[in-house]
Amino acid sequence: MVTDPGLLESGSAPAHAAVVVRGAPAEQLARTSPVPMSRPPTPAAPVLAAPTRSEARSAPLWSWWATARRALPWRETRDPWEVLVAEMMLTQTQVARVVPRYRSFLERFPDPASAAVAGPGAVLAAWVGLGYNRRALQLQRTAVRVVEEHGGVLPRDPSQLERLPGVGAYLARAVAVFAFEADLGVVDTNVGRLLARAVVGRPLRRREAQVLADQLVPRGKGWAWNQAMLDLGALVCRRRSPHCNACPWQADCRWAGSGPDPAAGSFAVGARQAPFAGSDRQGRGRLVRAAAAAGPAGIAAADLARVAGWPDDPTRAERVAAGLVEEGLLAWTPAGTLALPVPAGPGRELPRGASAPR
DNA sequence: AAGGCGGGGAC
DNA sequence: GTCCCAGCCTT
Fold this sequence. Notes:
- By secondary structure, this protein is mainly α.
- It folds into three domains: 5-72 and 183-252, Helix-hairpin-Helix base-excision DNA repair enzymes (C-terminal) (Endonuclease Iii, domain 2); 79-178, Orthogonal Bundle (Endonuclease III, domain 1); 280-339.
- It is built from 15 helices and two strands.
- It has a two-stranded antiparallel ribbon.
- A hairpin with a 5-residue loop joins β1 and β2 (338-339).
- α2 (54-68) crosses α12, α3 packs across α4 and α3 packs across α9.
- The longest helix has 16 residues, at 134-149.
- 43% of the residues are buried.
- The model is unreliable at 1-47 and 344-358 (pLDDT under 50).
- It binds a DNA duplex through residues 74, 86-98, 129-135, 138, 165-171, 174, 178, 186, 188-191, 226, 230, 233-234, 239-241, 268, 270-277, 279-282, 284-285, 288-289.
């Protein structure tokens, strides 16, 4: 008998019998639209071609996952805010870099209300070092919106989640699946790579990938299935040098690790990015980090160029600093120094129009 | 469709 | 050194 870790993890998962094959054949995926937010009606006929059948893939995946699964702190919760914080931190950031920062951030901001009240500067100060500092601002703005429009509780509908600042298609579904245990497929870089390589053996368009991911989810096991898929992509079907010998889908893989990588150019699979060293991004990061370290006093204008890493190019430093101010990541103080947008620390008032936290 | 956005670990 | 990561947003 195949063990089913999903039933151990997912309190609401029904103890049902067999995985049911649903959905449309792979050849029809492209014209299935729009992406359904819930399971479409079960069609009469068996549909997915043999290599893409969910049933053939679920048993090996569960067996593999029972021993290979990663123990990660955000897998211990179903709180939607805690899930959102994890997913926001994990955006383009490796798991190993998020783990040591996750719990300490949640201790400081245990719910949307606390982040809304604290203000952008405080959230940013707790974020510095994780990278992509805009995410901290977006998370804080989302917290304000959740307090103002949703009574301080994140909505469970992906389409509503997606309207929140910084919450796109992936994050909305990730919250729906990992907090509310929806039976949807999440497509990040790991899953996107896995689908392209193992399931279809060719690059996938956005909608194809999303529909296919949805169809593979065994009913009632969305949480465990997606966590297992992420683990399989991250640990076995890696971007470089995949461990095909250790893969539970080796017998059914449409690629098998030789020849051109079908994941190249497929949806959610990252493209090359510009060099970081010497970029504006690098200077921006230095300025925000230095502002966080300087506290309310801020960075003296005379130090900007040196702090940004361009001692011989103050014009560039000022331009980049102006951009950070424009985006709300930094602010000029009355003294003419550059600081985080609001004083970090307790005792701030709520933004005008915000309701009191519960 | 393409480019900007952090930073650190793997190679 | 280069590459890439539980993406999102703007142009």
